[in-house]
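User: Sequence recovery, please. Input:
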């Protein structure tokens, strides 16, 4: 069973950019209401797509460098990385079905 991986400015390159799987990174903060609303959905996706999708979480208050590097101006911002490059950006809370519309085309076959 997989869970979202907490990343930092220091571990972002190893965990996200060099990941072998498409990686959906959640730029979030503890005080953000919509971030708390989307967190359970991301946990579900981590379990359901284990082995096909990696989910990571970066707290923007504790790790501002990475957030600034990717132009994150509002949270939650989800960026899907594939081969170390951002390929999809989702801003704000989205229900599970809408998130899947953005990411399923990038996932390897089951």
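Assistant: Recovered sequence (110 residues):
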């Amino acid at each position: 069973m997989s869970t979202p991986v907490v990343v930092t400015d220091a571990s972002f390159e190893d965990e996200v950019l060099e990941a072998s799987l498409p990686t959906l990174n959640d730029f979030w903060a503890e005080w953000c209401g919509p971030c708390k609303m989307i967190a359970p959905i991301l946990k579900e996706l981590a379990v359901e797509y284990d082995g096909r999708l990696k989910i990571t979480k970066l707290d923007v208050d504790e790790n501002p460098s990475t957030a600034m590097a990717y132009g994150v101006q509002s949270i939650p911002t989800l960026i899907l990385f594939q081969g170390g490059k951002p390929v999809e950006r989702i801003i704000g809370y989205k229900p599970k079905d809408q998130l899947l519309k953005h990411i399923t085309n990038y996932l390897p076959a089951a």
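The CA atoms of residues 90 and 102 lie 8 Å apart.
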